[in-house]
Structures are given as C-alpha cells and as structure tokens.
Amino acid sequence: MMTPIQSFQVNKERSKAIYKELIQGRVITRLHSVSSDLEENELYTEIFNNFNDYKMQYEMSGFELVARPDFYYIREIDADNANTDTTKKIQALLLIIGRYVTKAGYMFDKLTHPKGGLSSEDIRNIDDTEEYREILDAIEIKDLHAGIKTTLVFRRIMEETDTGKFVLTSAGRYFFDNLFVNR
Amino acid sequence: MRVDRDILIQLVLKHKNAFYTLLDYVTQNGGSAAIPQKLYIDQYRKVIVASEDEMAIRHLDLESLHRHGIFVHLDHQAETLVMQSFLIDMLRFIDKSRIRELSRSDFEQIRKQFEAFCKKFENDLNISAGLPDYEEALLTLLESIDTAHSKVQQNVEALSAHADDLGRRYEQLDVQGFSTIDNMKLLEDASRLYERFIKPCLEFLNPDIQMKDQGLTFTQSMERLASRHENTGYTEKGLRIRYKTTAIRSYYKDIAQIEQRVKRYYNSLAAERLKYTAIERAYNQLQEAMSVLRHGKLRNTKLSADAAVFAQTDYLRGLKQHSNPSDTRINWYDTDNLQIVEEWLGAKLKNFNNTDPEVITTQSIAANVSVSEERRLLILKLCMDRQWPKQHEDLILDAHEWLLAQLDDYSLPDLLVAYQYIYARKENLKPTLLHNQVHDEKYHFDYLVLRVDEDAEESKKVA
Questions:
Q1: CA distance A92 to chain B (A)
Q2: Would you say B181 and B172 are in contact if contact means Cβ atoms under 8 Å apart?
Q3: Which of B30, B124, B164, B318 stands the most exposed, by the fewest C-beta atoms within 10 Å?
C-alpha cells in the first residue's frame, strides 16, 4: 500500500506562485530585492522547507526540480537537457557583461553590490563595441537593454535596482562562482 | 653677486616645487645624477619668474646656483646639471612621498658594509682605546650605524606614505563605477611595493633570518661587533653598539604593520585579478566559437547552443519556458473511445444557449436618414427636459427604451437625434468596445455601448 504523501506543510498559495514562476522558465532565488533591500524570498523558503514534497510533485509532472546554491529551477526529465537556446543566450550575455566590467578596470563587485550595477551607459558602451555586437548578433539579441530584460531579468538571473541599473542575483553570481572556482 | 648660503637655502625651500621636478627626474631615471638643464630653465621660468620674487629671480638662476654650490656641475656640452646630494636628501626629507625607498640591493650594500666592519674588527684590528687605527675605524663604524639608522627610518616613512597612497586609491575603487581608479594598475603598484621594498626591508631587519651563503646578516654582524668589544673589556662601547642596533631593528614592527596593510590590499586586488583572468579565459573560448562562424565568410550564422564553450558548464542546463501555447494538449488515449466523444460534446454544448436566435430582417439605418426639423426639435426638447440616469450600463439602449415609451410614433431615426444629444454632452460618458443593436420594424442600429457613471466621477473629484 502506498504511503500517502505528507504535504500538509505545503502552502497551497505559495505552491501556485512557485509553479507559475518555474513553468515560465524562471529561477527562484533565496534572496530578492524589495525596495532596494535584499530580503528572504518566501517562495524559496517554501521549497526549501518542503523540498521532498516539491521534488516529487514536479517529478510526477515530468520535471526535475534542480537545486543549486541559493536558487531552484525546473527542467524536463525526459528531454536531452543539452543546453537550450535560452541557456546559450544567458551564458553568452553574462560572459559579455562580466568581461566588459573587469576589462574596464572595475571591481567585479560592480555587478553584485546593491549600490553598483550595470548602467545604461555601460549597456550603450557594450552595444557600441564591435566585438560584443558581433556576439550579440550571433545569439540574436538586437537590442542589448531589451535582451538583458527579457533574457536575464525576466528569468531572475539579474534584477533591476531602484536606480535602473542591473545587478546579479544569486543565480547570476553562481555562473561566475563556477568560473572562478574552475580557473 | 654672492649671497649667504642660508639665504640661498631659504629661497630654494620657498620655491621648492621647481626643484621637486628635478628630484622626480632623478628618481624616475634610476637615480641618474645628470639632469637636463632645460628642465630647470623651464621650471625657473614657470615657478620662480612667475612668482615675481626679485631675490629669487636674481639668485636662483642656473649660473648663480652653480656658483654657490647648489648645482655641483654644469655640463654645457651635454647641457646637463648635477644637484648636490644634500639637496636631494633635504627635498626627500621634506616630502615623504618622494623619499627613495631602499631596494634589495641597497639593503644588501648595507649588510655587506657591516659584514666587512665585523671582519675588520675581528681579524685586522687590535681593540684598544687610543690606537689611531682602532679609533678611526670605530668612528667610521658609529657614523655608519647612524647613517643606516637614518636610512631605515626614512625608508619606513616612505613605505608608510606609499601604503597610505595605496589605501587612498583602494578606497576610491567605486562599485558604482564612477571611480577612475584602474584596479589592475593598483594591483601592480601594490605588488611592486610589497615585493621590491617591503619584503627586503623585513628580511633585513628580521633577527631570525639566515643567509644562504654563510654570510652574516646585519643583525649577526652587529651582534658580533658588540660582543668583540665586550669580550675585550670595552663593555660600554659594546652596549652602545647594541643600543644603536636595537634602535634600527625596532622599525621591524612598523614595517610589519605596513606589510599587513599592503597585503590586505594586494590580496583583495589579486583576487580581482584572478576573477578577471577566469572571465577572460571563458570569453576567449566564446571568441573561439565565434571564429568558426567567421571562417569561410559565413555571415548571418548563429552561435549554436552546442558550442564547446557552453558545454563546459551545466549552468541552467535544460532551462527554458515550459508553458508553450503550441505544445500538444493532453493526449488522453491513443485510441478512439466514447469518453473522448463525450468530452468533446460537453465542451461544445457549453457554448450553446437554449433561446432561438433572433432573425433580423431590418436594414441598417443609414447615417443620413432624414428627420424633419420639427421632429428633431421635439426630440431635442424631450432630451433636454429629461432627468437622464446618472448610472447606466448602456445609455443608448436606455434612450431607445425611453423614447419608445414617450412617443407613440417612435421610430429609430428619432434615436439618432437623441444619440447626437447624448454624445454632445460628453460628460461622464465611457465608451466601451462592446457592440449592441436596437431595431424597430424597419431599421436596425449597430452601435458601440456608452456607459455613464456620474457617481464614480464625482467620487474621483472628491478624492
């Protein structure tokens, strides 16, 4: 006889909100900005506290709930799970942004500090640089500002500050942490 | 005309900025003594003549400074000059940031000097007060100790000033991106300061360090010189040597503190450098993937998600938008069965209602259907006299029903007059995108529904 799933701790409202986020290809990060302060994301906490329940729930729907340091996302179980066009764009954009910042002599913190962030001027500089423009064309991003919003901000890889600049979320930082560890 | 040297020195100090330029030239050219005369002539014009100080203008020109010994040598053929060494030392003493740091070779020179003293006092000299050779050697030794002390002290001041400058520039590194400080240049400066100047000084003053080639460290030489005197009955002289040595070695803790500060900046900047290197390496792989696209002049070709640069990490692998409207709907069964038919029927029946649809045989009322002027005035009067509803979801329908009740011979052209009246009011009307239709026996009138809600508008105004 199957043991009934003990999901009485799962919050249904948050579960719905989590589903809505993940099914759109967004990640759920541990912290998120609320009025320029970083606060615990209750959706992340919900998953964290009921991880086994959520993992099973998504498995039954054909998805793997992937846990990474400080963020979650889902991917299809049966699919090849090679890099998708989405991951290609995300990685290429992050590399271009990271390279621009460090090459210009800025501290890397510019991309992570709440008072820092990629400004409109930085974005224009990147867009006007031929070598970056060539890569952006090759990943089909015509307008970098729009590309950052739809590819990175929408998916919670970056977020927009109160001053209109873009900083990395924990999901975005994870990309670079991997690079730095594997140097 | 000659002037007293103390007056001259005062003038030099008053206009020291002109001489700092010469000092900087010496420092930047590895201590080169020969300074281009043109450099001073430019400074004389820009600083001294510009100051309108008559005394300075008269006595600080090239020839006067040479005559008074401030400039040791003027080479008119090579057009160079040489400054007095005391002037160089004095200018460096005044501006700590210009003090020349002691390099590894400077410390090595000092170490060898005292090693030579040690060997001389141990092997060549008879330690006996009154002997001319001994007294002369002792005097030279003590002067050399004082000189070394002065050099080490100035070195510590210079390193402290440079560490302060490094700290100031480090603090200016601005995450907001407004800083013009290049963190890579800062790292190079921190590295250079630490490796070339701080580390040699620490090694020189460290009492525990041993020479690899059996040579004597500074501390060991001084220790042996002191012991040599104490063992031959000259305890007081031995103690004097020990005190002077201790005074020099006391700067070790100051240098150690400077080392800690610089190391903090260095480590932070080095970590930044490693990040830069890691990103650069990944970016180069991205460029390699791009180069394949450029090969053979393949234009308008897109970067593949399978490129090696993306395969090296499993970052967000499989991430995509999963809710796709064009995705196949749930496929219940792969064979036809009754439940599918029932489900289909149920979905279709939901959209059916049980009322018979009204078959319309009227014609659309033309915009220019004529209404007599008399009739028009009648309708307008009725409209003006009416208390129109303050709230209604469909004001045209309301007007139609009201006119139908008011006029026995009502027809749809009358509604057009009322429609014009309503529209002319333009107050509190809310056009919608909903369509509706009214008709009489002859005509039908299709219109966009107009809502009215005066109370909501009043509430907004009050708010």
A1: 8
A2: yes
A3: B30
